[in-house]
Design a protein that fits this description.
Low-confidence stretches: none
Oligomer: single chain
Order of helices and strands: HEHEHEHEEEHHHHHH
Helix content: 25-40%
Number of strands: 6
Distance between the termini: 42 Å
Number of domains: 2
Mean pLDDT: 90
């Protein structure tokens, strides 16, 4: 099977772009080797999806549900792409928008089994900006990726332009957690405390307080809005409460219709 056949099929699924990376060109410093995830892995098919304007919503619930919609759509596209490859006799492993990742003290739940940022760059779908997100040549920063790891041996697509970032520092100045102060690095502690206040860190802090509380204090804690949000996050999955670096970036933003 050739790259064009894969590309044509991917676009019939409704994705916005597709790129291919040889396993040899994929480099992610903290993630496991691809061979550890699929013995005989030779390439990655990376699918790109445009983030909707829901990421601009002042309501974190609305913004997050827009992301959940995208994730549900991407899972279907990812699975169908994997089936397409396996019907041709190749092995294929799906890598969704979020998860799988090892949840441990060492990783802090922030190291993916496959770094989709690095996979997208290796597949020619963009380059990293000042915000350390991938900037796609046409979709800009409002893009999310999934991937299929496969035994099919394919060369990488040509790289995107090295620097698509316009270095306006809007993302740096607008980061409510101050997580982008150091170029080339995202302070995960600062980012996660702001973007996922009801993630595992928030849960540990809440239940630590609960363990030390009196019976009356515990009753009050269970009526606290923080507990209700933790409860909701536990059922829905991880909850982002901040999309600033993505929504504020001007690169690739859809212009007004009369522009």
């Amino acid at each position: 099977m050739d790259k064009q056949t894969i590309r044509d099929y991917a676009l019939t699924l409704g994705v916005d772009d597709v790129g291919i990376a040889s396993a040899a060109d994929y480099v992610s410093p903290r993630s496991p080797r691809l061979e550890a995830l699929l013995p005989g892995a030779r390439s990655l098919v990376v699918l790109a999806y445009r983030e909707l304007s829901t990421c601009e919503s002042p309501s974190p619930q609305v913004a997050m549900n827009g992301r959940l919609d995208l994730m549900e759509f991407s899972r279907s596209a990812n699975y169908r792409m994997a089936r397409f490859l396996e019907r041709e006799g190749e092995k294929a492993v799906t890598v969704p928008v979020s998860y799988p990742m090892e949840m441990s003290e060492a990783t802090k739940g922030a190291v993916a089994e496959v770094s989709l940022r690095h996979a997208a760059v290796a597949a020619g779908l963009g380059s990293l900006g000042r915000h350390n997100l991938v900037i796609h040549p046409t979709l800009g920063t409002r893009v999310v990726f999934s991937a299929v790891l496969t035994s099919l041996d394919l060369p990488s697509d040509p790289p995107a332009p090295e620097d698509l970032c316009i270095h306006c520092d809007v993302c740096v100045d607008g980061c409510p957690g101050g997580a982008l102060a150091e170029p080339g690095k995202t302070d995960l502690g600062k980012c996660l405390r702001n973007s996922q206040p009801y993630g595992i860190g928030g849960s540990i802090r809440f239940w630590s307080r609960y363990a030390d509380a009196t019976p009356e204090e515990r009753k009050a804690l269970l009526k606290d809005p923080e507990y209700w949000r933790l409860y909701q996050a536990a059922f829905i999955g991880f909850q982002y409460f901040c999309f600033k670096c993505q929504s504020s970036c001007p690169v690739g933003r859809t212009p007004p219709k009369d522009a």
